[in-house]
Amino acid sequence: MSSLELGIASDEISPDFKEAIHHGLAWGIKKYEIRVLKSGRIPQVDEKEVDEVCDLIKTNELEITAVSPGIFKLPVSDESGLQHELDVLLPQTIEFAKRVGSSLIIVFGFKQDDTPLEEQRDKAVGIVKKAAEIVAAANMTLAIENEPGFLCDTGENTARFIERVDHPAVKSNWDPCNSFGTDELPFPDGYETVKKHIINVHAKDTKLGGLVECLPLGEGVIDWPGQVKALLRDQIVQHITIETDCLPLIEQSEKNVRYLKNLL
Q1: Are 100 and 62 in contact (CB under 8 A)?
Q2: Cβ neighbours for 207, distance < 8 A, ≥ 6 positions apart
Q3: d(Cα 123, Cα 111) in Å, to the nearest integer?
Q4: Domain span at residue 45?
Q5: Is 110 exposed, middle or buried (0-12, 13-18, 19+ CB in 10 A)?
Q6: Number of domains in the chain
Q7: pLDDT tens digits, the chain, 264 residues: what are they?
């Protein structure tokens, strides 16, 4: 089996990037995903803060594994909102990603509305095809994160969606916790259906569903021992990104680091 490194979303420690890496480096983590900084969610953040983040990345020889602007959480019926995300937020995210040295942009899979699902999927595929062309031109990749209540909620639905988009710049950000509560068993079922598309993995745990309540890894119902073993076996990613989502962040994030180190 190969090895896996640990990464973490920096705001799962603190929105203050300097404080986040202070703790993360003490835990042995050099890989960070950037979503939220002190001045807001990227890419709409203060330029001075971005300069400071870039200095910290260079000084500490960090790797920014992904950036996550939180786009495509809207339903496809919100045409003006989605057009703004395509025309403004996505290009701004690409520029932010270039500055921090990342080539992976995490997006979501469109909140479901009350129109027929197939109509929603058709529109969503068209939007993601446009986004894929934009990121591909910048030599970057989109990773769709599955989430309950979205068109891309399960591993299976995410895989089918990616296959319909059929673009090499569109992959999966697999979150087994976000699959829990659907009609799919996250591991092994969801994982096995989507694994050929996976480029990034988020790690958190739950007993009630990822949008209801999250728990430290190992305290919920997600089969993390099995999932980690499969990731080691399949060698489809080189790291796992911790996404704590439960308070107090620093304490629970450190607990998650210890749990995964024990598994690895």
Answers
A1: no
A2: 213, 215, 220, 221
A3: 12
A4: 5-263
A5: buried
A6: 1
A7: 468 999 999 999 999 999 999 999 999 999 999 999 999 999 999 999 999 999 999 999 999 999 999 999 999 999 999 999 999 999 999 999 999 999 999 999 999 999 999 999 999 999 999 999 999 999 999 999 999 999 999 999 999 999 999 999 999 999 999 999 899 999 999 999 999 999 999 999 999 988 899 999 999 999 999 999 999 999 999 999 999 999 999 999 999 999 999 999
What global pTM score does this model have? 0.97
